[in-house]
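Re: the 650-residue chain
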Amino acid sequence: MNLDQRDGDHQFRPLFITRHSGKRVTQSKSEFRRGIRALGASLLVIAVLWAGLGPAPAAGHDEGARWGRNVESTTRKTPEIEDIPRGGLAWNLRLVGHNPLLDSNQGSSSFDPYINPPMGVPRGSNGDITAAGDCVYVGSLIGYQPALIVDVSNPARPTVVGAVPDLVPGVGNGIEGIEASDDLLVIDQRRALGGLRFTVPAGLPTSGIAIYDIGKGGSNCRSPRLVARFEYKSAIGGAGKDTHTISLWRDPTEPRRVLGVQSFTDEEPVDNTAIQVVDLTGCPQLCNPKVVAKWSARTQYGLDRFGNPRAHTHEAIVSTDGNRFYVSQWQDGFLMLDSSKLIRTLRGQDTCDPNQVTTPSEGADNCIKPLNASYEFRAASLPIGWSHTPMRVPDRPYLFETSESPGPSVARDSSGRVLQPARIASTCPGSLMRMIYIGEDGYFATAGFDAQGRHIPAMVLRGDLYPTPLSQFGTEEQKFENCGPDGFQPGTAPLTSWFSPHQGLVFSNLAFVTYYGAGLRAIDISNPYILREVGYFINKPVGTVRWASYGVTGDWGFGPGSQVRNVSTLGQPPVFAFSYVLSHNGYIIYSDVHSGLYILKYTGPHNDEIPQVGNCLTGNPGAVAPGYDPCPPYGKWDSPANAWTKERMP
C-alpha cells in the first residue's frame, strides 16, 4: 500500500532556508511532495541495485567457484543444507569458535523441571545476544529454557558458564530484548514464540524487565545479580502488555543516568502505548525504575483514512546525544522522535509532559514527539517486509534499516499436526534492507540562475524531517523473477528458505547483518547508493534441536504427565542467523536460532574499522563508553557529525 493510501490529509507547508540569503522559501504541500518524490525517484534509479555493480573482490572467487558460486553474481546464493561443508561456507569471514548450546549444558536454574532430563542435543530457540566484559548473554525464544552466559575469553572455545539466574519461567527471556551497558544487564520478558509458554509461577511478572548487576565494565559478568524487576501492567487487566524490544541509552554527561526504551506490540484499546521510556538512573546500585515518557502513533494520529490502526513500533533507538529517537514503525516505515525536552528535563534544565501526544498538531510540551508533526513525511515502509531495526551509521548522516518478512509455513490439520506428505510454502522474495538519509544540514543544489543572473540558492535538505531512502539490498535469490505463485521457483532457493535481514553491527563503512536463512552477511556501505556484499558466513546447521519454535516446525513430543518434551524442526534444522551482531576483541559474534553461538574473524574491506580490543554493540549508545555507539571512537555524541541541534517541525 503506497504512502497516499496509508495517511490522512494533514495540511502542512514545509519551509526551507536558502543557502545564501537565509530568506525563507515556502512551497505548498503538493509542490514539496512532487519535488521530494522526484528527488527520491532519481536517487532510486541510481541506487536500487540488488547488491552492487560487477563482481565481488577477487578474494573468495576460487572458493566460490568450488561451491558453484557464479563469480559474476552480486551475492552468495544459499545452497541446500547438504551442500554446506562442515565448517560452513565462508568468504572474508573465518570460523574461529562455535558452541551449539546443548540442552544438557545450561547450568542449574528455576528452569530445571522443564529441562531435565536433558536430551543431550542443541537446545535451539536461541534469542538475541549482548556482551559485557568477556561474557556473551544469549536469550531464549521460549518459556522452557533460560538465557545463558557464555565465556568468550578464548574465542576458539566459547564456554557456557550457566544460566542467567532468577529469570521468569513460562515466557521468553531476551527474545529481542537483552542489553548490557557497563555494570547493567537488562532482559525483557515477552510472550514466548511457537506456543511454547505456560503460566508463570505466582508472584512473577508475565511482562516486564529483569535488571542485574554485572560489575563495573562487566567485571562480574559471569555472576549476574538480580537487583530489581519492573512489570508492564495491562490497562485492561490480564497478563500484562505485550513487550517486543528494549534498547538502552547512557547519558554522556551523567553516566549513572540510563534510559530503557521499551516497545510494545499489543492492541489495548485503553492504552495503545507503543513506546515507554523507563528511567533506570542509579541502577544497579540504587534501582527504582519509573516511566518518564510515552508515545504511540495510534494515540497521536488515530486511524488512517481507511479506518486501520497505525502500526506499532518495532524498535526505537536513542541517538548518542539523547536528543532523537530512531523509530522503525513495523508496517509504517521509519521516522524520528524529538526527545530533547525529555533529556533537558531529566538533567533539571526543563519540564515536560510524560504522557502521550493525543492529536497530530500538539506535542510542544510533551517529553517525546515526532520531529516532523506530519506523519505522512516518514520514510514509508518497503512494499515487501516490515520495518524492523533502525541502526545509525556512526559519524555519517545515514541510517541503516533492516526489515522482516513472514517465513515459510507447513500445512497442518485442525489439531495442528503436520499433514503428510509435508507441504511447505515459502515467502518470496522475503524482505530487504535499506540506507536512509537522515542528516539535518545537507543541501540540494540546482545548477541554475534566475532572470537577474544570480545563482539559484541551494535548499537545506532536512533528512531528519523528511527521511529519504537512497538504496536497497537483497540477495541473489530475492530477484522477483525467482518468485512464482507458490513461492520460490524450483531450483532458485532451498524450499525452507527465509530471506529476512534482522539485526546488525554497523560501523562507518561496514555493516554485518544476520539474514535468517542467508546466514551472516558483510556489507560495504561506504557508498550509500550502492550497498555491496563483501563477505558471508553460512553455517552448517546442527543435525537436530530440542526446541523448534520459529519457522517451519514439526510435531510436539510429550513426556510423562503430558508435559511437552520437545518440538522438532521439519527435517534438518535450516540456517537461521537471528541475533544482533557484536564484536569482541576484533572478533565478530552472532547466534543462530538452531545452531548456537558463532565467533568469526573478518578479513575483507574496511576490516580496520573493527576495534581489536573491547566490545562493540550497535543500538546501545554508551554501553561500552558513554557518548559512543557502537563503541569508541564511533558516534561521539558531541561531534558535529552526530549531534542533533536543529528545531523540530511543528
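The two ends are 27 Å apart (CA to CA).
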